[in-house]
Specification:
- The protein has 9 helices and 5 strands; from the N terminus they run βαββαααβααααβα.
- α1 (about 30-50) packs antiparallel against α4 and α5 (about 150-160) crosses α8 (about 195-205).
- The relative contact order is 0.17.
- The protein is α+β, with helices and mostly antiparallel strands.
- It is globular and about 45 Å long.
- The two termini are about 25 Å apart.
Length: about 230
C-alpha cells in the first residue's frame, strides 16, 4: 500500500505541529544528556533551514515541535555555504547542481525532519552501542491555523511534562521552549487554557489540518491547485 502524501507547502508561510515517537515507544531519551543533544541538533538545523522552531518539548520516548515555514529567501551560493558550515551540514558543496538541489530543501519540513531524526539516531546508536531503527513510523504533521488554534496547540505541547507528572508546572521542565523562554510565556499560568485544552486536543491529532472550516477548505483548495 502506497504511503499517504504529506500535506505541506514550501512557498507560503505555514505553521505545523510535528511529532514522532521512538521505535516501540521505548524510553530512549531518558537522560538530560540525550535530550540536550536533541535540542542542540534542533538549533543546528535552524541555522541552515528557512524553518523556525517556534516551540518544542522533548519527552522520554517522543517529541513535539511547532514549526513555521517561510517563503524561501534568495541567498547567494557563498551565503549558502556559510550557513551550511555554521550548522556543520553538507560539507561537500561543489557543483552548481548541488546548490540548486539544496535550495529546494531550505523550506521543506520533510527534509528538516529527515535530517533531525537521522542525525540523532546515528549519534545515539554510536554513543550507546546500539544498532537498528531508532524512530518508529514516519513523523506526523498537522497544518495549524494561526490564532487561537495555534495557541491551543502550543499549550497542549508544553503541558506534556505536566500530564506525564514529570513536573508540576510546565516552565519547570528543562527541555521545552517554555522553560527556555519562560518570561515570555508567563500569561499561561493565569490562562483558563492551562488546564483545559489537553483533553479535547487529542481528537485534533487524527486530522491533517487544524482550524476553522473556512481555513481547512482554503488549505484543501491550495492543495488541489498544487500551490
Amino acid at each position: 500500500m502506497a504511503r499517504r502524501k504529506r500535506l505541506k507547502f514550501n512557498n507560503i508561510k505555514t505553521f505545523y505541529h510535528v511529532f514522532s515517537k521512538t521505535v516501540g515507544s521505548e524510553f530512549f531519551l531518558d537522560t538530560d544528556k540525550k535530550k540536550k543533544f536533541f535540542v542542540d541538533t534542533l538549533k543546528r538545523l535552524s541555522i541552515f533551514f528557512s524553518i523556525k522552531v517556534k516551540h518544542f518539548v522533548v519527552m522520554t520516548n517522543h517529541f513535539h515541535l511547532i514549526l513555521e515555514t517561510c517563503p524561501e529567501i534568495k541567498i547567494s551560493d557563498e551565503e549558502l555555504i556559510q550557513k551550511a558550515k555554521k550548522a556543520k551540514l553538507f560539507k561537500n558543496l561543489v557543483l552548481k547542481k548541488d546548490f540548486i538541489k539544496l535550495r529546494k530543501k531550505l523550506n521543506d519540513i520533510s527534509e528538516f525532519m529527515k535530517l533531525l531524526k537521522q542525525i540523532y539516531a546515528q549519534w545515539y546508536n554510536k554513543n550507546f552501542e546500539r544498532s537498528g531503527y531508532f524512530w518508529g513510523s514516519r513523523f506526523k504533521s498537522i497544518i495549524i491555523q494561526p490564532g487561537i488554534h495555534l495557541l491551543n496547540c502550543i499549550i497542549y505541547v508544553i503541558l506534556n511534562p505536566v500530564r506525564a507528572k514529570m513536573v508540576t508546572s510546565p516552565e519547570k521542565y528543562k527541555f521545552s521552549s517554555l522553560h527556555m523562554n519562560k518570561n515570555e510565556y508567563k500569561f499561561l499560568k493565569h490562562s483558563e487554557n492551562y488546564e483545559k485544552f489537553h483533553n479535547k486536543m487529542e481528537n485534533f491529532f487524527k486530522k491533517d489540518i487544524m482550524g476553522e472550516s473556512k481555513f481547512i477548505n482554503m488549505v484543501k483548495n491550495l492543495i488541489k491547485k498544487n500551490i
